[in-house]
Design a protein that fits this description.
The chain is an alpha/beta fold. The protein starts with 38 loop residues before the first helix and ends in a 7-residue tail after the last helix. The protein is 48% helix and 9% strand. Strands 5, 6, 7, 8, 9, 10, 11, 12 and 13 form a nine-stranded mixed sheet that branches. It has a two-stranded parallel ribbon with strand order 1-4. α17 links the parallel β7 and β8. The longest helix is centred in the middle third of the chain and has 49 residues. It has three domains: 69 residues, no CATH class; 189 residues, no CATH class; 316 residues, Alkaline Phosphatase, subunit A (3-Layer(aba) Sandwich). The chain is built from 24 helices and 13 strands. α7 runs antiparallel to α10, α8 runs antiparallel to α9 and α18 runs parallel beside α21. It comes from Streptomyces ortus. Keywords: Membrane, Transmembrane, Transmembrane helix. This is Sulfatase. InterPro entries: Alkaline_phosphatase_core_sf (IPR017850).
Length: 664
């Protein structure tokens, strides 16, 4: 047995010996010879079976004692610590007990004062509890990553009660690898799971806001737009806080996933026998359940979701690259590419034509039971006002190329006659010379073409692609009032500025204008109020209105309130536009207005269509006579049964209806 640790006031311990050399307790020692050393004084004894062996006396030379000094040099200086004991045990194959938080035992452990031992040694029960808790959390985190769906509709408890084949395969691989290679593989596997988790989270966000998954090739550019949106909605400090939180979350996901897989890999190596049997059983169960199609709560029990997700992403990348090449060829073809200027829209000569987009004005605004009553009442009221002022209108439906956001994709689809459903297509078409609807008016030389873009807050080179002689962005409209969440200014002010800067001036040409109205942009709080036109001024009047409005945080996360406020924002935008036409329009005014896309799923509903209303308003009856064969509904509220066209078909239909001659 080892000697007890000396009391604090005792002399330093004598030179220790190895277990093989450890003597029996003094009480069991035979009496030494009269001239031999005192065993208790020397700190050593002679085993019973070596009693006849000569015993070293104090006269023994240094050379004779040297081998003993070389055998245990460190032990001569201090007692063996708990950490050194664990290391020694690990080298002898006892790492499993030490790794699971067992108390340090074995020879020499009693020499360590309790206060100097690790907390696991002092509290072995708590140590084991913490160890198994951390290990269990690591296993749960890995299983969550393997089973996590990327669609909000599939987030159900049953999804996380499946058996993932990737876990079985990964365990089998890690168990057979040597230590170093196992560590490297575990780290790489953890980082891969972290990447899949982050991509799945991005898919969830994109599905919620844009109705589609994250495109790993094209969508990185949207993060800058997201940051800008956060700054506009929450202020710079709030946006910085969100960005920092997101970065920390991403780093934490990668780090925790890697550490979790490494921990589980080490456990598999320590418990290789049990792990092998468990893996074989799990593999057999998975194969049987997969072959029999066993389901639990309507979900396939044998899961391979991670492998399927990886394959899906690879397929999407390949499809994106292929689509980009194919679209470049499509964009070069144009039915009206070589149409002479005098053969473009001849039936609209002399008309002031306005193409206006109302942000997020989707079909749900007219049909959803929460939003529809208010919106429909406004559309009916404004139709009556138009009729009283001598105007008429027809309306139908267009299917947008985007959903929930990315408004520029809807704008470019409508104006170019091409299906611009992603950023790659947008870059391709705007870098080319494809004729746009607005560009057709510029090509004739008979119109002055302008753009009113309150949502543009930096240089916008696409203006030349759209054929606009002059673009007024948010910095050039003279607004001195507050922002309304993301929207830089109320729609009524933007239209008032348009009247002041362009439409109200004397001109030698009619105007063709593209106007983007932004007050109906999410998060739909606060919302401006309609005021008398002569009070709009430089926008300072909106300061009190903005302060009295609701906070975005009180609206956006409440499914009912957000629908109500969205509906009110559409009512405001439509009211501003129609009031402008009634007040400032004349017999030559032609208005084409539409929504660019449906609002996000929280408002439009899960799996909502992508339809948006489109209307043509004119004072001259002959303008609407040209589209009699379209089958559209009278007024600015399209009937539920009105025709639905793809948005990219509108350009050619419009140009043809107003006399343009195709020349491919």
């Amino acid at each position: 047995m080892p000697e007890a640790a000396p009391p604090a006031d005792s002399t330093p311990p004598q030179k220790a010996t190895t277990p093989a050399e450890q003597p029996n307790p003094p009480a069991e020692q035979p009496n030494p010879s009269a001239d031999g050393p005192n065993p208790s004084a020397a700190g050593a004894g002679t085993p019973a079976d070596t009693a006849d062996t000569p015993i070293a006396t104090p006269s023994t030379t240094e050379d004779e004692e040297a081998p003993a000094e070389k055998t245990e040099p460190a032990l001569a200086e201090a007692p063996i610590s708990a950490g050194e004991e664990a290391s020694a045990d690990a080298s002898k194959g006892a790492s499993a007990a030490a790794g699971e938080g067992a108390s340090v035992g074995g020879e020499g452990a009693a020499d360590v004062p309790p206060a100097s031992r690790g907390w696991r040694a002092r509290h072995p029960g708590a140590g084991r509890s913490v160890t198994w808790t951390v290990t269990s959390l690591a296993a749960l985190l890995v299983l969550f990553a393997l089973l996590m769906p990327n669609d909000p509709d599939r987030f159900r408890p049953a999804v996380f009660l499946r058996l993932p084949v990737e876990a079985i395969f990964g365990a089998a691989v890690l168990m057979v690898l040597p230590k170093t290679l196992r560590l490297i593989t575990a780290v790489l596997a953890g980082l891969s799971l972290g990447a899949m988790t982050v991509l799945n989270l991005l898919d969830l966000g994109f599905n919620e806001f844009l109705g589609r998954g994250f495109n790993v090739v094209l969508d990185w550019v949207l993060f800058d737009d997201a940051r800008t949106y956060l700054e506009d909605s929450m202020g710079k400090a709030g946006a910085v806080g969100v960005v920092v939180a997101v970065i920390v979350l991403v780093i934490a996901v990668f780090a925790l996933m890697a550490l979790s897989v490494v921990r589980l890999a080490n456990l598999l190596a320590r418990q290789s026998g049990r792990a092998t049997r468990a893996t074989l059983v799990a593999g057999t169960v998975w194969v049987a359940c997969s072959a029999l199609g066993v389901q639990f709560a309507g979900v396939q029990f044998a899961a391979r979701s991670t492998a399927g997700a990886v394959q899906n992403r690879v397929d999407r990348v390949q499809a994106t690259l292929k689509d980009e090449a194919e679209f470049a060829k499509i964009a070069k073809k144009d039915t009206f590419a070589k149409t002479p200027p005098d053969q473009l829209v001849p039936d609209l000569r002399g008309k002031d034509v306005i193409f206006a987009f109302i942000e997020s004005y989707g079909r749900s605004a007219i049909e959803d039971p929460i939003m529809a009553p208010g919106v429909d009442a406004t559309l009916d009221e404004k139709t009556a006002e138009l009729t009283e002022a001598g105007y008429a209108a027809k309306s139908g439906w267009l299917t947008s190329a985007t959903y929930g956001g990315s408004s520029w994709l809807g704008h470019s689809t409508f104006l170019s006659g091409l299906w611009i459903s992603n950023q790659a297509r947008y870059r391709t078409v705007t870098a080319g010379e494809h004729l746009t609807l607005t560009g057709a008016f510029q090509r004739t030389g008979d119109w002055r073409t302008v753009g009113i873009m309150p949502g543009v807050q930096k240089s916008w080179p696409e203006g030349s692609f759209y054929g606009l002689d002059n673009v007024y962005d948010s910095r050039e409209l003279g607004y001195k009032g507050p922002k309304f969440s993301w929207s830089t200014m109320p729609d009524q002010y933007a239209l008032s500025a348009y009247q002041r800067l362009e439409h109200g001036k004397k001109r030698d040409k009619p105007l063709m204008s593209e106007i983007i109205l932004t007050s109906s942009h999410q998060p739909w709080a606060p919302i401006p109020k309609t005021i008398p036109w002569d009070e709009v001024g430089d926008g300072s009047v909106y300061k009190d209105i903005q302060k009295e409005g609701k906070k975005a945080s009180d609206v956006f996360y409440d499914s009912t309130k957000v629908k109500e406020e969205y509906g009110k924002s559409i009512q405001y935008s439509v009211t501003s536009l129609i009031d402008y036409v009634v007040k400032y329009g004349d017999k030559n005014t032609v208005l084409v207005f539409l929504g660019d896309h449906q609002p996000l799923a929280r408002v439009s509903g899960d799996h909502a269509n992508r339809d948006v209303p489109v209307s043509i308003v004119a004072h001259d009856k002959s303008v609407l006579d040209k589209i009699d064969d379209w089958g559209w509904t009278d007024g600015i509220k399209p009937d539920h049964t009105a025709p639905v066209w793809r948005m990219d078909s509108f350009r050619d239909r419009f140009l043809t209806a107003y006399g343009s001659t195709p020349h491919p």
